[in-house]
Structure formats: structure tokens, C-alpha cells
Design goal:
Layout (H helix, E strand, L loop, with lengths): L14 H22 L28 H4 L2 E6 L4 H5 L7 E4 L4 E5 L5 E5 L2 E3 L5 H17 L4 E7 L5 H6 L11 H12 L5 E10 L2 E4 L11 E2 L6 E2 L6 E2 L3 H14 L2 E2 L7 E2 L2 E11 L2 H11 L4 E2 L2 E2 L2 E11 L6 H4 L3 H25 L11 H5 L9 E8 L6 H14 L10 E3 L1 H151 L1 H69 L1 H56 L1
Parallel strand pairs: 1-5, 1-18, 6-17, 6-18
Antiparallel strand pairs: 2-3, 3-4, 7-8, 7-11, 7-14, 9-10, 12-13, 14-17, 15-16, 17-19
The structure holds adenosine-5'-triphosphate.
Adenosine-5'-triphosphate (ATP) binds next to α5 and β13.
Subcellular location: Cytoplasm, Cytoskeleton
Subunit structure: Interacts (via C-terminus) with NEK5.
GO molecular function: ATP binding; cytoskeletal motor activity
């Protein structure tokens, strides 16, 4: 305590000055109550009160001595059966709750007034006592401060009633322990941690009320932080009120108690309920703290989660007792001695703190060691002192009141204890590592899946490309084959074309020839017709000539007859007869020649007839060929259409040729005319011959 706590500058004040200061705060308490119904510590300098409703309050350490002073309330127990049965009963105190004042009677005519932070009459409810005394501390603890609520008083005055009452049958009877846990459990979330240890200090031995086998549990003090702990005690996580009630009842069962003259159930030990609260600092508050303290917790870019660890001590002290009154003997006496000894040590420390003494005898007892942080330390502390009403216990009441008065002078240095939650960070980082590992695994899995897919696709692509290559090779082979075939076909076609050309040429030639022939044939036909006509004429002439020849023959026969007759006459005329014979012979020779000419002419006429027939036949053949050619011509007409121009050109050549042919025909015609002329000459000659023959005959 000496190292952590010092009495405030108000420690030198007289009780009245303390009262004055309390008066200031009392008005603030009233104000707070009006605002929110809860009693908070309102600073006279106008700062906001430390209440659960003050959500926006600063988390800065508050060093207002008044606000950090140990709060002390006094509670008067109702008269008990002893008091009621006391015929000489007299009140030793007069309470003025509205003034938060207690008047302690010195004697029948005088009294001394003491100011407290709150004064509870015997009718004060458990609820109100809790809300005024303990609740602000509980809220402070929920905000991250350490806190202590302690009951101090003479045995049998209601310390256990005020703090440890379970209120199983009547909820309104619940004491501060149950109500505090109720509030804590309501105010904390699942992410927060609420744990308890419940120990008793019995005859300077710390024993675990939740695990009674644990005795002589050592007190551990952290040299650096001054933190006091009993790590040997069982720590139980509290999740609900029923669970807590169970443990509280268990502790009650395990607590040393005895039936004394003063109290049928007198606690023989100091019970200390330690509530450990571990809360994560909200993000915004965390940020505010970082900004305010300019100390951003950053490890490799990660903000460290900050937690607030706070501890609430609910201390139900064993009651001080006067051995003569309690009647303790033997073991009870020993217990009482230890109780009184430890309470005395506490009183000494409080005195020393109140008097700002350089030495605080913290180490005189385990109780003061355990409460080192509660008085003069960093905790917010509320003390409720319990007193009995009977004047019979005036001295004990006066001692208690004075203890309370001194305690009011003790100023603590409250501070929030925040630390980086390495455990949580570790868990978070582990979770992050797990998450990242699983993410990596997942991604690896996806990569594997993707790779497999890619490999499969690649294989498929490879296969398809091989297939495509095969197909393209087959196709190219096919194309090459087709190409070869087409080339061959093209060659054939070219050849065919050539042959077609050739044929065309042949046909053209043939057509030309046919056309020529046609022309010729026409011409010949015409010529033939003409010749036929001429021949007819010739034939007529010949027939006529034949008739004439016949006539001439007949004439010749007649002449021969006449000649015979003449010969006979010649015989009669010998000279004349000789000349006549010669002439006759000459004529006979001429007639023979003429006959021969006639026969030749006849033969020639027959030949001409045959020739005519042959030509007719030839014309018929030509006409048939022409008909065939016309069929073929119609067949080739389409093909010839494209080459008509060429044919036209050729036709010109043919025309030329035809002209030549025409010229030739003209020549033939001339020849024919010449033949006709010859024939006519022959006819003329024949006529001459005939005339000569006629003259001769006539002459003859
Ligand atoms: N405010 C009260 N109203 C009604 N009954 C009370 C009140 N305070 C105490 N009592 C009763 O007085 C008796 C003694 O109280 P309690 O055991 O709490 O005293 P104590 O201070 O704890 O005593 P000790 O120090 O011996 O343990 C109990 O029967 C309790 O019910």
C-alpha cells in the first residue's frame, strides 16, 4: 500500500472538512440519481459522472482526488431479538439520511455527528444499498477499473446480510454479491469472460471456499504492477446467475461460521469473492485510446486487440468482537484473536493512509496484503460499515464509525488496466493462419483442379489437333488425289476439248464440205435439172434424130432398093452405072459412118442417162446426208452458237470458196454450153448430112 497509495491532501482535514467535501459530492449524487436513477460519483469540476449511462465518457485516467476517494456508507441494522429483549435498550445512533449524517451518542445528552457518503437506516432495502454502494463500483469494474466493495462492522451487524445474502426464497433479500454478478452478467457479452474465485481468510490462512481442500493458498504480489492475486485458488467461469448462486452457496457452506453470543451464525473468517472480468475493448474505444495515447498497437500491420482486465473484490469481513461480549472461548477465542488482529492491521493501514503516513503496514496481515489495491491502490473502493442500534455496543459502533471516517480519507489512484490481448491475438492469428492455410489448401485444390482441367483440355486439344492433323492429312491426300484426278480429268477434258475442237474443226470442215456439197448439189441439182431438160431436149432431138435416122434408114433402105433398082438400071447403063456404084459406095460408107455416129450418140445418150441416174442417186444420198447433217447440225447448233463468229469468218472464207466454186460451175456451165454447142453443131452437121442425104436422095 505504501508504494501505491497515499492519503490525499484532504487527509489532514478534520472530520468537518471531510464532511464539507462529502456535502459537495452529495449534491452531485442527488443530481446523478435524478438523471439516471443510479448513484454515481459526480465531479464537482463539472466532468461527467462515471456511470454506465455515460457511454461517451472519456477513458482518460481521472486523478480527481475526490472521485477516487474511498466511498463509505453506513448501514444500521434493525433491532434484533437481543435488542428487543433488552429492557434497558437505548439507541446509540441517530441517523439523518437526508444529510447523510450519523449522530453517535456519547452519552445521554451529547452526541457527535459524522458525515458519510450515504447513510442507510434500518429500513433501507437491499436493492437500494446495492445501487448506492456497490453498483458504481461494479460499473467501474465493467469499465476496466479494479474495484472493491467491503463490509466492515461489529459481529452480528449485517455484513454477511448486506453482501452475501443469497435471497433464494426472496429475491429482494439478495445481497450485493448476487446483485453485482447479476449486473455483470447482464452487462457482459459472450465474448467477455467472467470468472470468480471465492476464498476465506481464516486464522491467517487463505482457503478456497469453492475447493475446500485448498488451504494455505499463498498470496502472490506482482512487484512491477503491484497486482495481488491468489493463483492457487480455483477460478470458476460464470456463465449464468444460477451457476453463481450455486457456487456462492457452496462457499457459504464451506465458510467457517460459529454460533456466538453475538451472532448465531457468526462468520469466523473474512470471505473474499474475487470476480475477474476480461473484456475486449470496443473498436471505437480502442481507436480512441490509440489516438489519444499516440501509441497505435501495430505488429506487422495488425492492430493488437486490447482487453481490459478488471477485478472486483467483494469482501465480507469477519466481525470485530469483544471477547467478553461474544463469549468466545477455546478455538472460537483463537479465531476471534485472528479476526481482531487482522482487522486491527486493516485499521492501522487505513489510519496510516488517512494520515498520509510514509509507512503503511500492509504486511502485518494477509488481510491487508489482500486488500492492498483496495485502499490506497488503483481500485475504486466502496466501504459499507454496519452498525447495530443498541447503545450497549456503543464502543464497537464508535470504533466502526471511526474506521469508516478514516477510510473516507483514503484516496486511491484509479486507473484502467488495459493490456494487449496477446492470447486473443494469438487465437486470432492462429485462426487467421488456419483460415489462410485452408484458403491456400482451397486455392491449391482449385489450382490442382484447374491444372487437371487444363491438362485434360490440353490432352483433348492435343488429341483433337492430332485428329485434325490426321483429318487434314487425309483431306489433303484426298484433295491431292482429287487434284490428281481433276488434273487427269482436266487433261482428259483438255484432250477431249482438243478432240472436240478437232471434231468441231472436222465437223466444221464437214459442214463446210457439206455446205459446199449442198451448194454444189444444189447447183448440180439445178445443173442436173438443166442438163435433164437439155438431155430431154437432146433425147427429144435424139428421138427425133432416131426417127429421122429411121426415116433415113428407111430412106436408105428405100435408097438401097432404089440402088438395086438403079444397079439394075446401071447394068443397063454400064458407065453410068460404075460412077453410080462408086457414089453409092461413098454414100454407103458415109451412111455407115453416120450410123456409127448415131450408135455412138445413142451410146453417149445412154451413158448420159446412166450418169444422170447416178447423179440423181448421188443427189439423193447427199440429201440424206444433208438430213443427217441437219440433225447433227441442230445438235451442234448450240455448240456452234459460241463459234458462230468464227464460223461467220469461216463462212466468208467459204463464200469465197463458193465464189470459186461458182466460177468453177460457171466454167462447167460454159463447158456444158460448149457441149451443147457441139451437140448443136452435130445436129447442124446431122442436118447438113440429112440435107445432103435428102438432096442426094432427091437427086437420085
Ligand atoms: N439490515 C438487516 N435487516 C434485517 N436483518 C438483518 C439486517 N442486518 C442483519 N440482519 C440479521 O442479523 C443477523 C446477523 O447478521 P449477519 O450474520 O449478516 O451479521 P455479520 O455482521 O455478518 O456477523 P458476523 O460478523 O458475526 O458474521 C442475521 O440474522 C441477519 O439476518
Amino acid at each position: 500500500m505504501a508504494s501505491l497509495g497515499r492519503a490525499s491532501h484532504k487527509s489532514e482535514r478534520s472530520p468537518s472538512s471531510s464532511l464539507s467535501s462529502s456535502l459537495n459530492s452529495s449534491s452531485s449524487i442527488t443530481s446523478s440519481r435524478n438523471n439516471g436513477g443510479s448513484v454515481g460519483v459526480h465531479r464537482s469540476n463539472g466532468r461527467r459522472p462515471v456511470t454506465p449511462t455515460s457511454k461517451t465518457r472519456s477513458l482518460a485516467h481521472d486523478h480527481d482526488p475526490e472521485s477516487e476517494r474511498v466511498r463509505v456508507a453506513v448501514r444500521l441494522r434493525p433491532r434484533n431479538s437481543e435488542d428487543l429483549s433488552d429492557a434497558d435498550y437505548t439507541d446509540c445512533v441517530e441517523l439523518q439520511p437526508e444529510l447523510k449524517r450519523l449522530k453517535l451518542k456519547k452519552n445521554n445528552w451529547s452526541s457527535e455527528a459524522y458525515r458519510f457518503d450515504e447513510v442507510f437506516t434500518e429500513s433501507a432495502s437491499q436493492k437500494r444499498v446495492y445501487e448506492v454502494v456497490a453498483k458504481p463500483v461494479v460499473e467501474s469494474v465493467l469499465d476496466g477499473y479494479n474495484g472493491t466493495v467491503m463490509a466492515y462492522g461489529q459481529t452480528g451487524t449485517g455484513k454477511t446480510y448486506t453482501l452475501g445474502r443469497l435471497g433464494k426464497d426472496d429475491v429482494s433479500e439478495r445481497g450485493m454479491m448476487v446483485r453485482a454478478l447479476e449486473d455483470i452478467l447482464v452487462s457482459t457479452s459472450a465474448s467477455d469472460s467472467v470468472e470468480i474465485s471465492y476464498v476465506q481468510l481464516y486464522m491467517e490462512s487463505i482457503q478456497d471456499l469453492l475447493a475446500p481442500e485448498k488451504i494455505n493458498i499463498p498470496i502472490v504480489e506482482d512487484a512491477k504492477t503491484g497486482e495481488v492475486s491468489v493463483p492457487g485458488a480455483a477460478i470458476v467461469k460464470i456463465r449464468n446467475l444460477d451457476q453463481f448462486l450455486h457456487f456462492l452457496q457452496l462457499g457459504e457452506v464451506n465458510r467457517h461460521a460459529a454460533n456466538t453470543k453475538m451472532n448465531t451464525e457468526s462468520s469466523r473468517s473474512h470471505a473474499i469473492l474475487m470476480v475477474y472480468i476480461r473484456r475486449s475493448v470496443r473498436e471505437k474505444e480502442e481507436k480512441d485510446i490509440y489516438l489519444k495515447e499516440n501509441n497505435p498497437a501495430d505488429i506487422n500491420g495488425h492492430h493488437l486487440p486490447t482487453i481490459r482486465k478488471s477485478k472486483l473484490l467483494l469482501v465480507d469481513l469477519a466481525g470485530s468482537e469483544r471477547i467478553d461480549k461474544s463469549g468466545s472461548e477455546g478455538h472460537l477465542l483463537e479465531e476471534a484473536k485472528f479476526i481482531n488482529l487482522s482487522l486491527t492491521s486493516l485499521g492501522k493501514c487505513i489510519n496510516a493512509l488517512a494520515e498520509n503516513s510514509p509507512h503503511i503496514p500492509t504486511r502485518d496481515s494477509k488481510l491487508t496484503r489482500l486488500l492492498r489495491d483496495s485502499f490506497g491502490g488503483s481500485a475504486r473502493t466502496s466501504l459499507i460499515i454496519t452498525i447495530g442500534p443498541s447503545y450497549r455496543h456503543h464502543q464497537e459502533t464508535a470504533t466502526t464509525v471511526m474506521f469508516g471516517q478514516r477510510a473516507m480519507k483514503v484516496v486511491n489512484t484509479v486507473k484502467v488496466k488495459e493490456e494487449f490481448d496477446y492470447e486473443s491475438l494469438c487465437r486470432k492469428l492462429e485462426a487467421r493462419v488456419d483460415h489462410l492455410t485452408s484458403e491456400i489448401d482451397r486455392q491449391q485444390k482449385w489450382r490442382d483442379i484447374d491444372r487437371n482441367k487444363m491438362e485434360k483440355k490440353l490432352e483433348e486439344f492435343h488429341n483433337s489437333s492430332v485428329e485434325a492433323e490426321k483429318r487434314s492429312f487425309a483431306r489433303s491426300e484426298l484433295l491431292m488425289k482429287e487434284n490428281t484426278e481433276l488434273t487427269s480429268k482436266m487433261k482428259d477434258l483438255l484432250q477431249e476439248l482438243d478432240s472436240q475442237k478437232h471434231q468441231n474443226e472436222l465437223l466444221l470442215n464437214q459442214i463446210a464440205r457439206l455446205e459446199t456439197s449442198l451448194k454444189n448439189s444444189k447447183f448440180l441439182e439445178e445443173e442436173n435439172a438443166r442438163l435433164e431438160l437439155d438431155l430431154n431436149d437432146v433425147m427429144k432431138d435424139l428421138n427425133r434424130q432416131k426417127e429421122e435416122n429411121n426415116i433415113m434408114h428407111n430412106e436408105v433402105v428405100h435408097l438401097k432398093t432404089n440402088l438395086k433398082h438403079i444397079k439394075q438400071q446401071q447394068l443397063e447403063n454400064s458407065t453410068y452405072q460404075k460412077v453410080l456404084a462408086d457414089t453409092t459406095q461413098m454414100y454407103e460408107e458415109k451412111i455407115a459412118d453416120l450410123m456409127k455416129q448415131i450408135e455412138d450418140e445413142t451410146m453417149r445418150s445412154n451413158y448420159a442417162e446412166e450418169e444422170n441416174e447416178r447423179m440423181k442417186k448421188q443427189i439423193t444420198d447427199i440429201q440424206m446426208a444433208m438430213q443427217q447433217n441437219q440433225v447433227e447440225n441442230s445438235r451442234y447448233q448450240k455448240e456452234l452458237a459460241g463459234t458462230s463468229k468464227m464460223y461467220d469468218e469461216r463462212m466468208e472464207a467459204l463464200n469465197q470458196h463458193l465464189e470459186d466454186e461458182h466460177a468453177h460451175a460457171v466454167r462447167i456451165e460454159e463447158e456444158l454450153r460448149s457441149t451443147k454447142r457441139l451437140l448443136r453443131e452435130y445436129q447442124d452437121s446431122a442436118q447438113v448430112n440429112h440435107d445432103e442425104a435428102y438432096n442426094i436422095i432427091h437427086f437420085l
